[in-house]
Amino acid sequence: MQKYDVAIVGGGAAGLTCALTLARRRKDISVAVIDKNERLGKKLAATGNGQGNVSNLALSPENYHGGGAAAAFKTIGGDVRLPERLFNCLFEADGEGRIYPAGRQASALTDSLLFELSALGVTLLHPLSVTGIERGFALTLSDGRTLRARNVVLACGGSAQKQFGTDGSSYALAQSLGHKLMPLSPSLVQLRTDTAHIRSLKGIRVQSAVTASVGGRLLGSATGDVIFTDYGLSGNAIFKLSSVLAGVSGAVVTLSFLPGVEEEAVRRDVAAKAALGYPRSELLSGTLHNQLGRAIIKRAGPETCDIARTVKNFTLPVTGTLGFDSAQVTHGGVDCADIGDDMQSKLVRGLYLVGEYVDVDGDCGGYNLLWAFASGVRAANAICDQL
Ligand SMILES: Cc1cc2nc3c(=O)[nH]c(=O)nc-3n(C[C@H](O)[C@H](O)[C@H](O)COP(=O)(O)OP(=O)(O)OC[C@H]3O[C@@H](n4cnc5c(N)ncnc54)[C@H](O)[C@@H]3O)c2cc1C
User: Whose CA is nearest to atom 38 of ligand 1?
Assistant: First the structure.
């Protein structure tokens, strides 16, 4: 079988943008992308509810988690507009700074990459899995063939949502070459909670400030949509918070409804309704969704101040998450201590590890794709400089 200058294992966001950067910079090198899916870039085409939230104008070190978080922020280097140079389309930001393709179609991102990669002569091998790797490099393929390469980029993604080809089994490739794996847990995921006080609220969506704590220690906070479900909580604020709950047990979330309203104002509102003779169950009528108001009143003590306090401090013990099958991203991954700034392995020369595969995960809002693109581009530039 032909020997390639670069073999990229995984044709997702990181692998495809790595291939694109290599092919744009160097017409004289041979590049192959191997992916187990029928369609390359399958997950990329499903991101952002099908709209593809590729980056975010508001970028800070706090947006990244895991052992490689600080290095990831450095690698991105504030270049939140990187997608504009990678994709052949226009982008726009929404009111919250989230950047999307102007056509709001994530599948167009995949199409743009595949069109240009084919035009540039990159070899696309799919559906094919890489089942083994030996130094040198020799890659064993699922059809029994061996592919040889001078450089290998492992861009295999994580463990989240196995229907996209990411079931976590490919960590074994890096491990077989001596790399360590940091513990994995699902992130950007719905939370399972005690449901005793929220059973009647299924499907209700509210704006809320949410904090997570364990043993009285604050782990994190977020503000946004919260959706009540039959298992617990979903919504943007919960997704954001789930990253700080990865691997934590015994945590509690506290919902503070009406985030822009002081507790004292709620107390006055409840007292005014009580003075007018409203039935107790309706004392939050018009202030909160009726069902939510009634659930809060049922839980609160007898005084109006108890009701106001419960509106601002509605606690629910966290019992778990919906797991990897529902998570958008994996917390944990290949230990970044063994990976250099150029994404090259410190253990095996010519081996590069990028994207969600390594111990970096980002917040909801375009940060994970931005990391996938930035790390793929960084590896490609390092390879071009060395070849
Ligand atoms: C439903 C959903 C929506 C999301 N929305 C957003 C969003 O809007 N914005 C955002 O920033 N992030 C979003 N994310 C997260 C983001 O998509 C990922 O973090 C990002 O795609 C990771 O890129 P990657 O290239 O590292 O891995 P992936 O995109 O997961 O690609 C890895 C690829 O490797 C292939 N592969 C794995 N092992 C092998 C093997 N042994 N041989 C061959 N091929 C292999 C897989 O088939 C897969 O195609 C979303 C995730 C999900 C699941």
Answer: 156
